[in-house]
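quick one before i forget lol
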Amino acid sequence: MEENKHKRLWDYVELTPNWLDCDTSALDDISPSWYERREVLQSNSKEYQEFITELKREHAIETGIVEKMYDLEKGITETFIKEGFYASYISHTDTNVPIPKLLSHLSDHLNAVDFVFDVVKENRELTIGFIKELHALVTRNQEITEGRDQFGNKTNIPLIKGKFKVHPNNPSREDGIKIEYCPPEHVESEMDNLVKIYNDADRENIHPLICATWFHHAFTIIHPFQDGNGRVARLLASLILIKNGLFPFTVLREEAKVKYITALEKADLGEPQMLVNYFAEVQKRHIEKALNLKEVSSSSFEEIANIFTGKVEKWQKSEQENRINLLNNSRNQVFDFCLKYLNETKNNLEKRLNGGSQITIEFCSPEEDGRQYFYQGQIIKYAKKHDYYFNRTLPKGWITFRIDLSETKRYQLGITLHHYGYDDKTLALGAFLEFFQSDDLSERIDSTLPLEIKPHVISISKDIESKEKNIRTFLENAVTLTLAQIASEL
């Protein structure tokens, strides 16, 4: 009976096929745009440097909240992210620990994130020594952790910093089941193995998203330190991602239980795709924000004039025409796929409806000029709602999927293809839902019916076919939500 109360998570570390076969397309669909844009932003943009600083602060704050070391009001969190960690910004009602203690933890976490960025810049190899150094830094102002006395009762014990555990750290869940991590006597060899496998995978160019996610999970089931394992695991995953031109892995407090912990538990069972998806989601969130950063943010005439003339010169070069043709072809390929899917969906629904309703599809491709301005207001409203810059100077297209239930009751799903952010290789698919209660289709009763669907953002610089699976998922979701909204109103 006692055995049923124990659950062994740890097993000898290996990078198994179920990890290597994970789908990374959620990140791959957008990352080419980011990698090209990154070079430009790193060279010119002060906004980008501020963005990275804010990402570091956000990670420093949220990692301690996820570990329940402290809590911090959302409003103060946003101030700290923007301005820095200053006691003058906070009162004792904004947190559940003494302010000096909070600030010391935040300082340690921020120093640890800075250390990770420095190590990447210096191109240092990942080693056991570095991992121990990182643990000592992140726990510098933490003196105790929870342990067990000789009778099995919870008690506070001194935290050994920068050294692997010498006592088991197997926590008990709420249901009474004890989780068994790697025993202390195996930690040294398991960590050596973990680092070796990662360095081999890195040299073999295994996808960085898979490397970071697998390393994070493997580290957590070893649980090599007495405390601080979650914080160090997220920092090490961040190191792998930053090394590959991506961003820190930051788990937001509101996502910790519903997404992060759930995905970790799935990976514990040998099903890592959900965890890979969550890592991709975090990176996409950062990439989408970064694509909205301005390249030119200086107030100096000389600086801006140099950037401006350089851009004009590049624009006038002959290869610009080839680039425009390539982007036009890619944009049209995405549009054609959307139109094909919506026509298939129309035929499917019409068979089910048996003539009970009429479905009409209208469209304007990105190549057409005359009707491109249609639905521009809806796109602007959609972009504002989802907090991104809609580049209206570049070609766009739209498709409407209208369902006529009667002469005075019509619903119209609009799918738009338009450019996202300041990079001309990045396209957004958006969706809006309109209701008509008149024969005159220009009389919209409400163009903001509930259709909570975020834009699907992709790079169109190359390989559009590989993106069709996730485009289809977006369109299917938009149609499904539309039908659900109509059904709920009938």
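fyi Residues 450 and 485 are 7 Å apart (CA to CA).
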